[in-house]
Specification:
Elements lengths: L6 H26 L3 H20 L4 H19 L7 H21 L8 H5 L7 H20 L1 H9 L1 H6 L4 H23 L4 H13 L5 H26 L3 H27 L1
């Protein structure tokens, strides 16, 4: 009996494929805008959404999506008041999210275990989760395709985009919902605590190749697939949480690419 014959593993692979495509598509815009820490903040915000979903006996993935979308919109709203203090905005949203999550968990009203969402688990992916992943991923990718050129413009120069007539604020709000979507679909496998690594690290690895935007995006997806699949399969055999091990694989792949780049530079000299 092979690893692929297990139903839970088939579910995990299905979700992982969508994660490995969606996360770098979102991550590349966050990294180019130097907003990678927003991904980390919203990852922690998703924990509050999960606990709200569990305590209200609703689907935790849906809860994570709704609450993370609200937090993403809140970050954009607060940017009007703290224009020069992005780190302060993230601290405010992080405090709201973590405070909400800890309050609900410590209240004793949460009659479910949230650990699998914090660390990631291939055993907890359900058929309903797969449907949610498929719908959210499809909507996100379609939106990215429709807003592709405007988002590139905003990523490189937000002020110039405003002058050119791009609806920057509206697109920023839409993008914050896309980030929430990417985080929501990834929680089951990767886990809240290391989710930001899947958004940023494959992009960071692809940037080392020094290619144009489209090739960087393609290589980001390639590295993301490598990271998640290796993390998923090896963690299964090591009997460890896939999220943490996937983060380690992501760092290892980045180090290997940096080492290869350094070796290539030395050989040329």
């Amino acid at each position: 009996m092979t690893i692929f014959s297990y139903g839970f593993m088939q579910n995990a692979i299905f979700v992982s494929v969508f994660i490995s495509i969606l996360c770098p598509c979102i991550g590349i815009f966050l990294v180019l805008r130097r907003y990678s820490m927003i991904g980390d903040t919203l990852s922690h915000a998703s924990l509050a959404g999960i606990t709200i979903g569990l305590v209200s006996k609703q689907n935790p993935i849906l809860g994570a999506f709704v609450f993370t979308s609200i937090c993403g919109a809140l970050i954009e709203f607060l940017r009007n008041y703290f224009k020069k203090y992005t780190d302060l905005i993230l601290t405010i949203v992080l405090s709201l999210s973590v405070g909400t999550a800890i309050t609900i968990i410590s209240s004793g009203k949460l009659h479910a275990n949230a650990d699998s969402f914090m660390f990631g688990s291939i055993l907890t992916v359900t058929k309903f989760d797969m449907v949610m992943v498929l719908i959210l991923s499809a909507i996100s990718v379609l939106t990215l395709i429709l807003l592709y050129h405007q988002m590139i413009y905003i990523a490189y120069d937000e002020e110039a985009a405003k002058v050119a007539g791009v609806k920057v604020q509206l697109i920023n709000y839409v993008f914050s919902i896309l980030v929430a979507s990417a985080i929501s679909v990834s929680i089951r496998i990767v886990g809240v605590l290391v989710l930001s690594s899947m958004i940023a690290l494959p992009v960071a690895t692809a940037l080392q190749l020094g290619k144009g935007f489209k090739l960087t995006l393609i290589f980001s997806i390639v590295f993301s697939v490598i990271d998640i699949m290796l993390g998923l399969f090896i963690s299964y055999y090591l009997n460890v949480a896939p999220g943490g091990f996937t983060a380690l694989v992501s760092v290892a792949v980045l180090v290997l690419v940096l080492a290869a780049k350094k070796l290539q530079s030395t050989i040329r000299k």
